[in-house]
Amino acid sequence: MHNEIPLTYTQLVATAARKFGQTCAIRTPAASITFSELETMVFVAARAMLASGVRHGDRVAIWAPNSPEWVYAALGATSIGAVIVPINTRLKGQEAGFMLERSGASHLFTVAEFLGNRYPELIAREQLPALRGITLLEEIDKSRSGWEAFLASGNMVAKEDCYQAMTAVKPEDIADIMYTSGTTGNPKGVMSSHEQNLRVFSTWCEWVGLQAGDRYLIANPFFHTFGYKSGWVACLLRGATMYPMAMFDAAAALACIARDKITVLPGPPTIFHALLAHEKMKDTDLTSLRLAVTGAATVPPTLIRNMRTELGFRSVLTAYGLTESTGVLTICPHGVTDEQVATTCGIAIPGIELRCVTDDGLPVAVGEPGEVIARGYNVMKGYFEDPVATAASIDEDGWLHTGDIGVLDADGFLRITDRKKDMFIVGGF
């Protein structure tokens, strides 16, 4: 199957424009853009990246809530071979500064303010010798470099030079560095290639049943794999329309579902609990909802039933993965019972080996708990500039040690039962 899919983000954008042309790619209350227009916008953004000195292999950080500009910046950078570094919008200056400094980001795309945080001011005192420029993904005033001015700067770059940079991108090139805390210590930068992302999420799309023409409310943040790779990347792979939401709000989500006839809404269990508990839920037309994909926490069987009966989802699936596995290891196939959806994370995606093992690395018996380890094309390329941490996570036989304790049943369904080390989950993160 993967021979038919685009293997770089440059190919992804071109293929989506060719296949889905005049279909709406991104819709917000303020704007609507087709897949053809998106291709044009990405080319403009790519020229601007080159004009600002961004080159193949350079790291470009994005620290901002979900918006069309987030997608344009990410694709403009990756389509010329730069590496995006998404940064959590909840982070404070020192934490974001750590990631900017460690990744050696040469350019930062951010917003002036979000949820009371003034991002440029938060990092004003951080020592960031590699950072050459900060661009706001919006227009505030003429005194600060905004998105329109950034795009206009691309006119200085010859179109041929941009095409050349775009055709030089290879499937094995790193597309992103996603920082994850894992369980201990400072966050580590997980490297994934263009091909890994596109192969994994083509499989994800196929298994969950994302379709051309789906209307996908992306409430999951773009700085997270759930909102980025199984969010807007998946939409580009399948020709679904993305409705980016800057911050999840149950009332706004219900209004959007009714107004825009949303068909797809993935997210952690917290967002479905919030929708079910909202006073307007009973009076909202939710008949368009078709597909939900959840995970990231324990899912009670009653929630799955309520998502079907009260929210009206025809398909509710769970999945499991971690940043180090390009986001996906297992998915619940269609047609399984609500009990299986709630109590397991599904089966391994094709091409992936999955085992539960003892501390000595020996496979445990069916139904017995052990550490979940995985091997396959989705295992990260390593932690950025951290060979010691990489070696601690991926053994010499190529097995990724997840740190999760799980049980595999006779049919290959995985149930996560524990962590080897403690961790906090806050708001689904």
What does this structure look like?
With 429 residues, the protein is an alpha/beta fold. The protein has helices spanning 9-20, 35-51, 68-78, 93-103, 119-122, 147-152, 159-167, 194-208, 225-238, 250-260, 269-277, 301-309, 338-343, 387-393; strands at 24-27, 32-34, 59-63, 83-86, 107-110, 133-136, 174-180, 188-193, 215-218, 241-244, 291-294, 315-320, 330-331, 347-348, 352-357, 370-376, 382-383, 400-408, 414-419. The strands form six sheets. It has a four-stranded parallel β-sheet with strand order 4-3-5-6, with helices on both faces. Strands 11-12-13-14 form a four-stranded mixed β-sheet. It has a four-stranded antiparallel β-sheet with strand order 15-16-18-19, with no helix packed on it. The chain is globular, with a radius of gyration of 21 Å.
**Mind telling me the C-alpha Rg?**
21 Å
Number of strands: 19
Question: Which overall shape is indicated by the principal axes computed on the Cα atoms?
Answer: globular
- The whole-number mean of residue pLDDT values reads 94
Largest sheet: 4 strands, parallel
Beta-strand percentage range: 15-25%
Quickly give the structural class. Answer: alpha/beta
Give start-end ranges of low-pLDDT stretches. Answer: 423-429
Residues in helices, as a percent range: 25-40%
Supply the number of helical segments: 14
Q: What order do the strands of the largest sheet run in, or round the barrel if closed? A: 4-3-5-6
Measured between the Cα atoms of the first and last residue, the distance is 32 Å
Record keyword descriptors for this entry:
429 residues; 14 helices; four-stranded parallel β-sheet; single chain; alpha/beta; four-stranded mixed β-sheet; 21% strand
